[in-house]
Amino acid sequence: MQTARLRLRSVVDGDASRIAVLAGDWDVASMTGRIPYPYSDVAALQWINGVEENEKVFGIEHNAELIGICGFTAEPNGNAELGYWVGKPYWGRGFATEAARTVMDYGFRKAGIRRFVCKHLTGNPASARVIQKLGFRYVGESTGWCEAQQCELPALTYERRRPWTMTIRALAS
């Protein structure tokens, strides 16, 4: 998939080292649920090869360089949890929002997703801004596991339902 500035593509074994470097930064890993710290090339390769059938994972490229990951885990009921991270050198440039918007559009239009849920740790205001820009609605307080910190932490949960106009267009097709 292509956006104005980004290319979203499949993640391949050759991405493991780059993922380990970018996601292995404490400032990135400590704000995610599944990224361990420290993060080795071997662990990144295991993650790439362990992506489940119900997970859609996309590498985010800018200027032909991998800068992060965005994707979702789908459930049989049409719900999916959205996740994303962008390497620290690329923060503050709108890349996470641009990638996540594209992945959500794919989910709504092509993967049958009816509702996305997303959460961020309370100590991550940058992710809160991304979620707000994506049009999510606040659902409530929760907790989220942080693999890097090895504990459950306070989090905020949001949802975004498929726009009804997409449903009408899909029925008309």
Quick structural gist:
The chain has 173 residues and is an alpha+beta fold. It is built from 6 helices and 7 strands, in the order βαααβββαβαββα. The chain has one domain (6-172): Gcn5-related N-acetyltransferase (GNAT) (Aminopeptidase, 3-Layer(aba) Sandwich).
* Cα end-to-end separation: 21 Å
Mean pLDDT, rounded to whole units?
95
* Number of beta-strand segments: 7
The CATH class turns out to be: Alpha Beta
Number of domains: 1
Low-confidence stretches: none
Strand content: 25-35%
Shape call: globular
Task: Supply the CATH architecture.
Answer: 3-Layer(aba) Sandwich
Mind explaining what this structure looks like?
There is one protein chain. By secondary structure, the chain is of the alpha+beta class. It has a single domain, classed as Aminopeptidase (3-Layer(aba) Sandwich). About 30% of the residues lie in helices and about 35% in strands. It has 6 helices and 7 strands, in the order βαααβββαβαββα. It has helices at about 15-25, 25-30, 40-50, 95-110, 125-135, 165-170, and strands at about 5-10, 55-60, 65-75, 80-85, 115-120, 135-145, 150-160. A 7-stranded mixed sheet has the order 1-2-3-4-5-7-6, with helices on both faces. Strand 2 and strand 3 (about 65-75) form a beta hairpin. Helix 1 packs across helix 3 (about 40-50). The protein is globular, with a radius of gyration of 16 Å. The two termini are about 20 Å apart.
